[in-house]
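TICKET: design request
STATUS: open
ATTACHED STRUCTURE:
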């Protein structure tokens, strides 16, 4: 809808004596309110494009400042991967909710620095109201816990880093 069509719509509404007219199309939303009938006063209230192109440039502007920081992030990840390459990652075998403790009033199964053996229970993952013990397949020392307690986890999501030495 172009400006000439909008102007002719305003004139038509003013002549018709209607106090308010709302028009919505795929592209535009218009509300026209007129003063008291016969006063000749017409107020054009809104013209809002339904599509939201102003949002897209804003998002693009937000992504541009992040671009310079993006190259630094892979460098940090590379360093981290090099440091973590000597560790074994224990991953979640199921989807569910990760718990470090057997119950809220009990201590955590393992803490950073604890020595573990193959078969030791490291955590519990709740799936469909069933609590599944997650056991270690390797012996070593817990270096890092990668998931917060009571957090949802996905299949194959890293849970712990273990130093096998």
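STATUS: resolved
RESOLUTION: sequence designed for all positions
ATTACHED SEQUENCE:
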């Amino acid at each position: 809808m172009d400006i000439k069509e909008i102007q002719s719509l305003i004139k038509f509404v003013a002549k018709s004596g209607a106090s308010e007219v709302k028009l919505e199309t795929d592209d535009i939303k218009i509300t026209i309110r007129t003063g008291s009938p016969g006063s000749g006063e017409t107020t054009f209230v809104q013209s809002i494009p339904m599509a939201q192109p102003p949002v897209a440039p804003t998002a693009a502007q937000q992504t541009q400042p992040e671009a310079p920081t993006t190259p630094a992030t892979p460098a940090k990840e590379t360093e981290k991967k090099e440091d973590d390459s000597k560790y074994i990652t224990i991953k979640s075998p199921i989807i569910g909710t990760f718990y470090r403790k057997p119950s809220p009033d009990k201590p955590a199964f393992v803490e950073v620095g604890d020595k573990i053996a193959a078969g030791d229970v490291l955590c519990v993952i709740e799936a469909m109201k069933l609590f599944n013990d997650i056991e270690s397949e390797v012996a070593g020392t817990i270096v890092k816990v990668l998931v917060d307690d009571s957090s949802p986890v996905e299949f194959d999501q890293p849970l712990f880093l273990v130093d096998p030495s």
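CLOSING REMARK: Helices lie at 3-16, 55-84. Residues 46-73 have pLDDT under 50 and may be disordered.
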